[in-house]
Amino acid sequence: MAKQGENNVKLGLFVLAGLLVMMVAFYMIGKNRNIFGSDFELKVRFTNLNGLMEGNNVLFSGIQAGTVKSIEMINDTTIQVNMVIDSKIKTFIHKNALASIGTEGLMGNKVVNIQPGKDAGSSVNTGDLLTAQHMISTDEMLQTLSKTNNNIAGISAVLKTTVLRLDSSAIFDVLNDKTIGPSLKSSLSHINTASKNASDMTMGLNSLVIQIRQGKGTAGLLLTDTALAGNLKQAVRKLKLASDNAGSLTAQANIILSSVNHDMNDGKGTLHALLKDSLIVQKISISLDNIMKGTDGFNQNMEALKHNFFFKGYFKKQEKKKQADKKLSAQ
Which residue intervals define the domain Mce/MlaD in the entry (predicted)? Predict the structure, then answer.
């Protein structure tokens, strides 16, 4: 009987020990503690935890690396988070790694994300303090979205007013006019043609300038030939001299005309007598009439001599000689 009671006590102690071990195991599993491995501790300081609590997960490059062990208030602006990290990941975490607070999914629990630094560095040691990186939280995103929505609402109201004004203006009439499109295309085509023509003209002018610089063509000779330039200067000098002479002759002619005009106005000189004395003019007219009559009589006498017996042979010889000269000149 005593032996059976002893066995019952041993069984009760064994069951109690198993329950204690099971409770400890459940506690460790609930805290994401490494039961059969070793851990090490890292620290990071934030200004705002955004709801991070003890026991939340710690991720390294998206991989489960440990849990948040404890949270300590350093001062009114600094909060220190102590993390327990699996020692298997220790070699991969360097001292220049960055720690930030994120969320599991869109609305899940808060987690600490550890990201590798840009440059290679030495591995961390137990108790090292990592650099904190500020990440935009969901609340900040929602506030920004709220401000953006308000701005969009204001812009939409302004756009609505602008569109209503444009609808009542002549701009839409211009846009709806089907004849503007072909006219605009034609104008652009003309502009393109004009641009090509201007380009061709520019190339032609460049070529002409190059030829002139090389002394080619008339313009090149005029600009580059020193001898021709000297001849031009001499010709211009002669033209100037001729112009001066013409000016002198004009001045002398003016003097002569002034003298003649003075003589005519004063009734002096032969020209005045010829132009203004009617008696002299009448005598000159009679003299010219007598000369014409005398010339006519002389012609009649010469015609009579041609038919005279003594002079008839002479005139025939002269006529034959003229015919022979005409034949020679024709040949």
Answer: 41-117
Residue 78 near residue 45, CB atoms below 8 Å:
yes
Interatomic CA distance for residues 164 and 166, integer angstroms? 5
Give the 3-state secondary structure of residue 92: helix
* 128 part of a folded domain: yes
Residues 55 and 131 in one domain: yes
Q: Extract the tokens encoding 282.
A: 């009448």
Check whether residue 108 and residue 48 sit in a common domain. Answer: yes
Residues 2 and 53 in one domain: no
Q: Where are the alpha helices (DSSP H) in the chain?
A: 2-30, 138-167, 171-176, 180-213, 217-224, 226-266, 270-276, 278-306, 312-330
Name the domain count of the chain: 3
Residues with pLDDT less than 70, the chain: 1-3, 5, 25-38, 106, 137-138, 166-167, 169-177, 215-229, 260-278, 280-281, 305-306, 308-312, 331
Q: How far apart are CA 89 and CA 59, in angstroms?
A: 11
Query: What is the rounded distance in angstroms from the CA atom of residue 285 to the CA atom of residue 305?
Result: 30
In-domain check, residue 262 = no
Are 93 and 107 a contacting pair, CB within 8 Å? no
The encoded tokens of residue 273 equal 């007598």
Residue 44 and residue 6 share a domain: no
Looking at residue 31, the DSSP 8-state letter turns out to be T
Q: Which pLDDT score, from 0 to 100, does residue 33 have?
A: 53
Would you say residue 268 lies in a domain? no
Q: How many CB atoms lie within 10 A of CB 155?
A: 10
- The answer to whether 52 touches 112, Cβ cutoff 8 Å, is yes
pLDDT tens-digit readout, 7-35: 777 777 777 888 887 877 666 555 555 55
* CA terminus-to-terminus distance, the chain: 186
Q: Which range marks the domain in which residue 13 is found? A: 1-30
Q: Are 229 and 235 in contact (CB under 8 A)?
A: no
